[in-house]
Design goal:
The chain has 218 residues and is α+β, with helices and mostly antiparallel strands. It has 2 domains: 108 residues, no CATH class; 80 residues, no CATH class. It has 6 helices and 11 strands. The strands form 3 sheets. It has a 5-stranded antiparallel beta sheet with strand order 7-8-9-11-10. A hairpin with a 7-residue loop joins β10 and β11. It is globular. It starts with a strand and ends with a helix. The structure holds zinc ion. Zinc ion (ZN) binds next to loops.
């Protein structure tokens, strides 16, 4: 038996959707409690209070994009969740922001597990090594490469709320849940080399969310 109470807590906001009549779209987190086991499972709701014609299709588009970019699943009611059952809230917020940015109609594909790091001109690859652990490597060695690898691993850790796997392993990060999340890591990897910019963007969106009174804006 599962029971879900109200819409949930808003954890992210796109105040103006440039792709659909400037509507406001929110991401809400809900906690579903299994009354038999007492186990709590986090679900995510993409929601707008807009009633513009076609808005349901736009919301569904964002949900489907999030499924691909974040490797998320969807309940019959349209709630999103990760297969491992963990919240991964920071990563989910990032998936939501990126999904809303994509121009409608473009083919959505999960991001690859490698990226060209503009700063070092290295091709940086992330490999899943099991148990939710990812190792960052580059196509060249040396001190400079090691520094960039550590910086990018640190970026992944921040954006995905991943943990360091020990002082000696500055090139590996891991998900607490112990499960692989390749799609998620691919998405975060596009932002990891510029983690400061990505985090500033999140802060701005959060402060915008605070400034706009939810009762009036959404
Ligand atoms: Zn997980």
């Amino acid at each position: 038996m599962q029971r879900i109470v109200d819409i949930g807590r808003r954890i992210e906001l796109v105040p103006i959707d440039p792709h659909f009549y400037d509507i406001t779209i929110g991401l809400y987190q809900q906690q579903s409690v299994d009354t038999t086991t007492g186990k709590e499972t986090p679900f995510f709701l993409v929601h707008t209070y807009s009633r513009v014609a076609g808005v349901a299709d736009r919301i569904e588009e964002v949900r489907q994009t999030m499924q691909v970019l974040g490797g998320m699943l969807k309940t019959a009611e349209g709630l999103l969740y990760f297969p491992c059952g963990s919240a991964h809230q920071a990563a989910c917020r990032r998936v939501f922001l990126e999904a809303c940015k994509l121009t409608p109609g473009t083919r959505v594909e999960r991001r690859p597990l490698w990226t060209l790091d503009k700063k070092s001109q290295l091709t940086v690859t992330v490999n899943s090594v099991g148990d939710g652990i990812y190792a960052v490597t580059a196509d060249s060695e040396g001190r400079g490469a090691a520094r960039r690898i550590a910086a990018i691993a640190g970026g992944l850790a921040k954006l995905g709320e991943m943990k360091d796997t020990g002082a000696d392993n500055k090139d590996t990060v891991a998900f607490d849940c112990g499960h692989a999340h390749d799609a998620l890591v691919g998405l975060l990897l596009t932002r990891a080399p510029n983690v400061r910019i990505a985090l500033r963007e999140e802060e701005m969106s959060t402060s915008r969310g605070v400034l706009s009174a939810p009762s009036q804006q959404m």
